[in-house]
Amino acid sequence: MKEETARAIELDKKYCWHPFTPQTLWCAPDHEPIMLVSGDGCWLTDSEGRRYFDGNSSIWCNIHGHTHPYLTAAIKAQYDKVAQTSYLGYGHPLAGVLAKRLCDFFPKDTFSRVFYSDDGSTAVESALRMSIQYTRQTGQQERQGFISFDNSYHGDTMGAGSLGGCRTFFGLLNGFGFQTTHVSDMAELRSLPDEVAKTTIAVVIEPVQGVNQVHPWPEGMLTELRAWADEKGVLLIFDEVMTGFGRTGKMFACMREDAYPDFLCVAKGLTGGYTPMAAVLTKEKIYEAFLGEPDELKTFFYGHTFTAHQVGCAAAMAGLDIFEQEQILEKMPAKVELIAREMQKLKEAHPHVYDCRQVGFIAGIELRNPDGTPFDKSKRIGFHVCDVALKYGLMTRPILDTIVFMPPLRATEEELIFALDALGKTINEVFEH
Ligand SMILES: *Cc1c(COP(=O)(O)O)cnc(C)c1O
Asked: What are phi and psi of 85, to 5 degrees?
């Protein structure tokens, strides 16, 4: 190991604290964490000079690859003008252009207002806070709670966290966050007592569940949910933090069904991970309830320091340019099919591949014992598989024993084959030797 790698690891273990990480394992003397130092397209290089295919788009953000020359140039050019200016009391020319571009993706009059924040959690948090205040300002005081889905994930701020449905993450928030009713599907939602719907502010859904080991919903579910929300007068929030910006093959997942929410939350892919940046798109009807004389106190009293960060806006716009310049969505269908084919091959070749789930460039390969029983959780098989995969040049992160495969949209057919082949070799090594 190079001296600089050893030093980086030493400082990290001594001073840093990683998210969602058992620090006892991280800091164990025999654990040599990878220190990433550079990126190029779909590839990352560590401090030892080893290269890895970025199989989960650096935690689901990267759309256009790393150090994309056009994106990097746009960011540098913006830094040369100005980096951050206050969006409280001032504006800047990029925010409006970006907001219009985002709204223009949708049918006319779907979304007309964009509220910026910093990351997925604060996008969801903004939508929650807007929906609460909206019901207060439209005389719906009886509405107090939220509805979300089992095993859902909406971020880690207190409000977004209390909506989440993964017990392991959010059990500790019980009694602290918003009053939330969890349901597993449309049937359970429909069977809720009428009293619950009448006292609900909003229902929140991820169009494809990511953290729940990559689980798509039945086709038509978003349309059914829209109809249910309309019937009950409940607001609808789509958390497209992971699914937005081409992940599913459409620019936004809701376009697959032409079903549109009252609040659409986006983040991760918005800048392709180049800077933190998020947005909530909403409708004129919602926005209008916040208008009035200042002393009526209808103002949306909420915001974040980095709102509409100028470099973030520049990065987002460059990302949208790349979608057009490089015909990213047009090139996806053949690659989506290739992923499906290669995963099917994995399933046929390896008895430990229990299930392959996929929507566009969102895929999960669930591993189990050949008899279909799940592995003993304490064995952390998913993490072990991802550790071994590094040796074959594939970097990704599991959720329990599901290996997430969510590559940058620009990955070529050769790269996708390389990555899934690396996973096949890994599974061979872990289980069959
Ligand atoms: C990642 C994610 C979030 C949280 O976003 P952060 O940027 O980590 O705050 C929320 N919802 C979904 C669906 C996500 O995938």
From this structure: -135, 160
Atom of ligand 1 nearest to the CA of 59: 1
Question: What integer pLDDT is reported at residue 375 of this predicted model?
Answer: 97
Taking each helix axis as running N to C, give the angle between helix 93-103 and helix 310-325, from 0 to 180 degrees, rounded to the nearest 10. 40
Helices marked H in 46-119: 57-60, 69-81, 93-103
Measuring CA to CA, how many Å separate 306 from each of 87, 88, 152, 321? 8, 10, 27, 23
Whether residue 239 has its Cβ less than 6 Å from ligand 1 = yes
- Along the chain (433 residues), what's the average pLDDT of each consecutive run of 10 residues? 97 97 96 97 98 98 98 98 97 98 97 98 98 97 96 94 81 75 97 97 98 96 98 98 98 98 98 98 98 96 96 98 98 98 97 98 98 95 97 97 98 98 97 80
The finding on whether 242 has its CB within 6 A of some atom of ligand 1 is yes
Cα–ligand 1 centroid distance for 3 (angstroms): 36
Query: Given ligand 1 and candidates 62, 153, 166, which is best to mutate, with the most ligand atoms within 8 Å of its CB?
Result: 153
Give yes or no for a contact between 200 and 146, defined as CB atoms under 8 angstroms apart: yes
Q: Atom 15, ligand 1: which residue's CA is nearest?
A: 242
Residue 78 corresponds to which amino acid? Answer: Q
Pairing of the two strands 145-149 and 200-205: parallel
CA of 157 to the centre of ligand 1 (A): 10
Handedness of CA 50, 53, 58, 61 (dihedral sign): positive
* Non-local CB neighbours of 262 within 8 Å, separated by 6+ positions: 131, 202, 229, 235, 236, 237, 282, 283, 285, 286
Which atom of ligand 1 is closest in space to residue 157's alpha carbon?
9
Q: What is the DSSP letter of 254?
A: G
First to last CA, the chain: 28
**Tens of pLDDT, residues 99-154:** 999 999 999 999 999 999 999 999 999 999 999 999 999 999 999 999 999 999 99
Report whether residue 406 contacts ligand 1, using a CB cutoff of 6 Å.
Answer: no
415 lines ligand 1 (CB under 6 A): no
Q: How far is the CA of 248 from the centre of ligand 1 (A)?
A: 16
